[in-house]
Design goal:
It contains 5 helices and 34 strands. It is mainly β and 550 residues long. It starts with a strand and ends with a helix.
Amino acid sequence: MTARPAQVAPGPTLTAVGNQRPLPPLARHALIERRRFLAALGAGAATVIAGCARDGGATPATAPSTIVSNTSSTTSTTSTTSTTTSTTTSTTVADTVPYDPDLPYWAQGNFAPVPDEIDAFALDVSGALPPELDGLYVRNGSNPAGGPGAHWFLGDGMVHGVRLQAGRAEWYRNRWIRTPLLGEGDILGGGDIGPPGGANNSSNTSVVFHGDRLLSLQEVGFPYELTARELATVGPFDYGGALTTAMTAHPKVDPATGLIHFFGYGFVPPYLTYHVAAPDGTLLASHEVDVPGPTMIHDFAITDRDVVFWDLPVVFSIELALAGEMPFTWDPSYGARVGTLPLGGPATRARWVDIEPCYVFHGTNAWRDGDDVVIDVSRMPTMFAPDGDEGPNALHRWRLTGVGEPGSGGALGFRPELIADRSLDLPTVDARSLGRAHRHAWYISTRDAFGGFDFGGITRLDTHTGELDAWGHADHESAGEALFVPARAGADEGEGWVLTYGYDARTDGSDLLVFEATDLAAGPVARVHLPRRVPYGFHACWVPGEHVDA
């Protein structure tokens, strides 16, 4: 394909080498030091509480100048060679992508950002795209426009989307989320941007489509609304001014009601708030959940009757924030616990059980088993600990016993079980099974590389048989989060396709990969060849075709 640059100014230049407990000590420290934190950020308490909540008045940054390219080519239907779990190769990531030890891992390899926004049309395809796939696959990720920040998690948000229709890949485009931080450095960089919260966030973690609205999310502020057709930024979305906290990057849409359940955590009280909203954008309920202090709660879970939170000892550190570093640290003295409350609230009926300190970024799903609540999680022994950034995230099953009727009294029990001792994370399930017992779940694997880690392949777990069905463990190939799209309305669970962006270190290029959802080992049934490398990112969603072109 041949790129044809539009007559616009060039984009930014980026360099890349390839039951309530006593207040624990950390919570007391957070309260004592709050004024110091607020003053250091250059704002009074009212300003920061508004900023960490509903400061929706911030003006999105003017976008960096970009090179917009249009590409055009004919669609190919040549078959592609499958790659299975038995694939071996002597190629290593280090052989194909030079590693610079003077740069952090998120500044090189396929973590490195791309420098501009482009559009491409009539994309080449190897294999055959299922004609049932009519919609937009869009994924969010960190792509700093001003050079690497303090951590991979803190870069400017950028979405990459591919429109599929009638067996064709109609277009690809990538767009930065137009936030006040765009091109200004991350939220820890200081300057005139102000404290984190509200519109002041990078909006770089996930996307969700709910109620005809496409939202880009990061957990320290408001979501941003995007247009599905152009991936253009409409602006921050705060549920008509009713949302006064941040919004998690992992909201849950109840398949029975269509309601979206989510939460926000804060660096100052309230530390945790649970919300429910309708598809029309009405915020129906907000409940403050009593927790001891400010922690990083990245995800949660719901069943058809319960909300499940894990409050774990990755805690907010004022000292790290003031130093311009990633502002969370491992502190097991905070303790660790898992709790439930009734779906929809109230939070006053929450019950908790203490567990061994650990960290969980992502839960796969949760469901009821009689009086018990069962949650599958990717459990790490620590996170942001002084002796290392990440640990092995093995798949565990947590059983909360004695839950009974939601919000009823009585002590909870806790029984953990190891499901798979390999590194599995970024889980997805069929969205129609959310909050209910599922059979199939899809994960990515990771591997050590670059002095940090690298993405590996994708794996499906059949919870009925225990089978692990995997693709992509050769060193040169990797893939991101695997998103399930059903073949049609009414299709059985797992009957459909899995989509993900794949990266080939031999060519330093990317494809959109499409797999038959329950046969990953057979390899992709189609590869959409993209006009540029798509950096590793976080979470994706599917927008049905009738909403893309509306």
